[in-house]
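ok so I'm stuck.
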Amino acid sequence: MQKRSKGFIELEWVCPNCDGVNRGSVKTCQNCGAPQPDNVKFRRASNEKIITDENAIKAAQAGADIHCGFCGTRNPATAITCSQCGADLKEGKARQAGDLMQAAPPPPKNIICANCNFENEGTATTCKQCGAPLPKQTISQVNVSKPQPIAGQAQKRKSPNWLLFGGIATFLILCCAAILFLFVLPSKSVEGTVTNVYWQTSVPVQEIQPVNYSNERGSPPSDAYNVSCHTESEEVCEDKTIDQGNGYAEQVTECHTESEQYCSYTVDEWKTIQTYDLDGNDLNPVYADPRLASDQRRGSASDTFTVYFSTDEGQITYSPDSLNEFQQFQFGSTWTIKLNAVGGVVGVER
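replied:
not stuck anymore, here's the structure
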């Protein structure tokens, strides 16, 4: 798999103390001054762009930040001792890195100050014009590819929409009931007398013939000949944004090649070259018995049967499923015919 870097972007984090939005490289909240907690989640900024500043690029490439094990201060990966308390960072804990960042949240809507009607940026907590506090907006959280559950905190599951499921189930039940009523269940019965019968038989004759296949996906059959194969390859790429654990993320393009083989070939197959049909109006159907050459064979025979009834509602036809059933319909015999709601025959009994 090929991996191409497109560059680095700066992430952002939300202060849990005041909901202020800060750049990923900032270690303390620019709104209230609170330090960045060690469990803060970075997210992609709605106005993200590839950074070009050399110092920022070096900081992004340095690796995951280390939180001091004594005072909790966030230090760059290159630091040996804590910038706050001077402790050895060997006892510190590096931030998690390598998670796949999801899409950036939509930019927050601008906030109108209720005191002076000044329009402020959506991330502002106090009015830029009069200093009045602004209402907080709901912050969209970004999920990563490997979410870490917080111990002791139950995850809320969204309750299913039982009303929607109930409506769909009711609709399906009504559809099934309508099908049963219209086509399967008998709605009335009529008496009918057999006035005629009809049968038709078909016997195919087959012989081996070459069949050509062109650009078939996969490997050719073992008995194929005149085989010609080629491979078609396609590069499939996907853009990913990977958290570096230091307030930055790397945007990369991962590509891999997918290949598929296509073959043209010839195989010998049994093909029907002629069909011999017979028919009649009695209860003893006959099947053709054609003469076969040495390279020919008889295919699977097929047949159809039809019985004609005279009823008070006119002529009704019925198609028996087997020869044994067909031969029960003697001329002049009377039967009870069960009809569905649309007039189709669903059963016949004596």
